[in-house]
């Protein structure tokens, strides 16, 4: 099983991207800084929580506003996980394009997912009484 989508044009002489420069071939790799690497690892951990909480209620993944093209990009859980793992291993984000005809009702933003997870955590904490630092008060 692959963690990333398979390139449908791999080895095809008619590959439409064949003429594009591949930055992985010539450019020196700038590895992620420790802070960047830690951020990606935290995103991966958060993604697991978000998927566990949101997938059962019909959320298929996250929507991210692309800084380059100013369009929303819709990522299923597995695709986003694969992209983050690729970033960890290569130090570069994957080339991307908007998903074909996604249903925006099935995707949420990182902020929404984070708020949802925080709300679930706060509700569970309140119901168990763990939020009171001094139970003798």
How would you describe this structure in keywords?
137 residues; mainly alpha; 4 helices; 3 strands; 42% helix; globular; DUF5319 domain-containing protein; DUF5319
Spans of at least 5 consecutive residues with low confidence:
none
Shape: globular
Number of helices: 4
Distance between the termini: 54 Å
Strand order of the largest sheet: 2-1-3
Instruction: Output mean pLDDT.
Output: 82
Classify the secondary structure makeup into a structural class: mainly alpha
Percentage of β-strand residues: 5-15%
Number of strands: 3
Profile the largest sheet: 3 strands, mixed
Radius of gyration: 19 Å
Instruction: Identify the quaternary structure here.
Output: single chain
Structural write-up:
This protein is 42% helix and 9% strand. The protein starts with 22 loop residues before the first helix and ends in a 9-residue tail after the last helix. A 3-stranded mixed sheet has the order 2-1-3. A hairpin with a 6-residue loop joins strand 1 and strand 2 (72-76). The radius of gyration is 19 Å and the shape is globular. With 137 residues, it is mainly alpha-helical. The chain is built from 4 helices and 3 strands; from the N terminus they run H-H-E-E-H-E-H. Helix 2 runs antiparallel to helix 3. It has helices at residues 23-26, 34-54, 77-90, 110-128; strands at residues 61-65, 72-76, 107-108. The longest helix is centred in the N-terminal third of the chain and has 21 residues, at 34-54. This is DUF5319 domain-containing protein. Residues 1-33 are annotated as: Disordered. Residues 11-21 have a biased composition (Low complexity).
């Amino acid at each position: 099983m692959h963690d990333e989508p398979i390139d449908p044009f791999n080895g095809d002489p008619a590959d439409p991207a064949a003429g594009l420069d591949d930055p992985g071939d010539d450019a020196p790799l700038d590895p992620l800084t420790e802070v960047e690497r830690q951020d990606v690892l935290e995103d991966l951990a958060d993604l697991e929580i978000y998927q566990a909480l949101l997938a059962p209620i019909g959320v298929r993944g996250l929507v991210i506003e692309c800084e380059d093209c100013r369009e929303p990009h819709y990522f299923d859980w597995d695709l986003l996980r694969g992209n983050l793992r690729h970033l960890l291993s290569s130090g570069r984000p994957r080339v991307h394009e908007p998903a074909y005809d996604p249903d925006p009702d099935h995707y949420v933003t990182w902020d929404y997912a984070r708020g949802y997870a925080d709300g679930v955590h706060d509700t569970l904490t309140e119901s168990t009484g763990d939020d009171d630092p001094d139970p003798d008060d």
